[in-house]
Amino acid sequence: MPYLKTAVNLKCVNTEQNFDQAFTQLCSYVEPTILLVRPGGNPDAYDKRNQIIEELKNSKDFKELNVFALIKEETERHTEIGREINEQISAGKDYQRDLDHLIVKMLKRNIYSGIEERCKFILTDFPDTIKQAQEFENECSKITAVVLAAGGEDTSTTIEIVDNGLSIESIDSLLQKEHRLKTMRAWDEGTFNEHLGNKTEWGMLMGPTLSGKSLVGKIVAENTNGKIIDLLAISEAIRPKLETEDGPFEGRIPDEEVEKDVLALIEADKAAGDKFFYLIDGMHHESVDAGATFFSSNLGAPSCIITCKAD
Question: How far apart are CA 128 and CA 97, in angstroms?
Answer without folding.
Answer: 10
